[in-house]
């Protein structure tokens, strides 16, 4: 076993710290996660882990030790560091003493098939990583396949996005694409796209959503731009009273996703009920 | 007119900066807001403004100048500072050059009447000011009266909460109370309380919400504690599939609030439709 690393200047720790910067994440194709919950989910979902970093003196749970041993058995490099060295890279107070450097995964747009019954979310130029992570978390809760990032959307592998996703970063598929490629994909597959706009006449709650669809959400400030709105089969609005004229983008996404999810659930119930009736002579 | 203040050590600027600390806000009963949108809303809603702070060299819009002149005419103190002095207190990059120090407003629990048809949100020990501000924003959008803060809930006058509220801080009523006072209030008024829990058997979407109610939401980590859950007429759950076992608290609040809002809207529509029928002979 390697000796315990005590210097924050150690190259592995330096890399882990530098992964806070988007540029470094883009160049390396890696990202950093912290805490036993997220590390365990990455292992459970079979992500390619570059290294685990642990501070044995801080690791208190048996569960965490088991995960570390299982990772070691799978040939994953485990870097052991002193509590102080760990604190040099931790983004939390009282860190749990476990972190991982992981290889990013990006899916291809050609595998995105809302026309085959899948539920996807398309995000145009979302700026806040916390919002993006929260959207991933909600997407996972309603059984969506994943998120397509359009234009200059913030990085889902930003530590704030990873944290806000509560592990959904490891189960939701992530695709990023240019406008050109997206337009070609739309022309080829004619996917059912539903957009949101506070100016739309269609109430999101009265609309019957297609079986599969991609929900397009615009940026915090600008909303969905005309080029994307024009591709949509329908634009829906979330009604508001009172003095605010918009909702937080993660909240707005959740409200529409739950409407879609409720319609799917109702349909499922109706289908089972009908099947049930068929069995009754 | 006073000469332009150039020193960040000026007492007015010092006070504005110190309002970032909760302790200073509690002691002074003041809070700090920044940007023309929020300042204009505070003026429009008639809040008691201790002072406006402006950097004339940064104020570019005619709208902002009009608001400043209107405030001056109402006898509000306007402190003019240099761009650099303004930057010393600004929480933003490229600040708009207008901020205000405002007196906090707290309502009384005795005026909170969900039993009279009002919609309120009760929050137990919410930790994140961004979540609290986002909840205020959504509460305003669905026509709620306000938010009751229970236990050690974060401060709605925290700059991050004010910012996330997008102005709803000035229109939603805010009440904070101890557990004892809340229990006495419940015993006296028997308000319809509806709580949320991921363990509840009742689906939030199948439940018929009473005309007026207080929606009780628990903290990010712990959920609603038994003492509050036991007061509730019903506990509802938001169903989830996938690998996450909870939603962001601002998202969960929004999903239930929009269900309540949709039921109220439908009722309104039905009532109007029935009234219409009555008029047809």
From TrEMBL, chains A, B:
<dbReference type="InterPro" id="IPR029064">
    <property type="entry name" value="Ribosomal_eL30-like_sf"/>
</dbReference>
<dbReference type="InterPro" id="IPR029026">
    <property type="entry name" value="tRNA_m1G_MTases_N"/>
</dbReference>
<dbReference type="Pfam" id="PF00588">
    <property type="entry name" value="SpoU_methylase"/>
</dbReference>
<dbReference type="GO" id="GO:0006396">
    <property type="term" value="P:RNA processing"/>
</dbReference>
<dbReference type="Pfam" id="PF22435">
    <property type="entry name" value="MRM3-like_sub_bind"/>
</dbReference>
<dbReference type="InterPro" id="IPR013123">
    <property type="entry name" value="SpoU_subst-bd"/>
</dbReference>
<protein>
    <submittedName>
        <fullName>rRNA methyltransferase</fullName>
    </submittedName>
</protein>
<dbReference type="GO" id="GO:0003723">
    <property type="term" value="F:RNA binding"/>
</dbReference>
<keyword id="KW-0489">Methyltransferase</keyword>
<dbReference type="InterPro" id="IPR001537">
    <property type="entry name" value="SpoU_MeTrfase"/>
</dbReference>
<dbReference type="InterPro" id="IPR051259">
    <property type="entry name" value="rRNA_Methyltransferase"/>
</dbReference>
<keyword id="KW-0808">Transferase</keyword>
<dbReference type="GO" id="GO:0005737">
    <property type="term" value="C:cytoplasm"/>
</dbReference>
<dbReference type="InterPro" id="IPR029028">
    <property type="entry name" value="Alpha/beta_knot_MTases"/>
</dbReference>
<feature type="domain" description="RNA 2-O ribose methyltransferase substrate binding">
    <location>
        <begin position="32"/>
        <end position="108"/>
    </location>
</feature>
<comment type="similarity">
    <text>Belongs to the class IV-like SAM-binding methyltransferase superfamily. RNA methyltransferase TrmH family.</text>
</comment>
<dbReference type="GO" id="GO:0008173">
    <property type="term" value="F:RNA methyltransferase activity"/>
</dbReference>
<dbReference type="GO" id="GO:0032259">
    <property type="term" value="P:methylation"/>
</dbReference>
<dbReference type="InterPro" id="IPR053888">
    <property type="entry name" value="MRM3-like_sub_bind"/>
</dbReference>
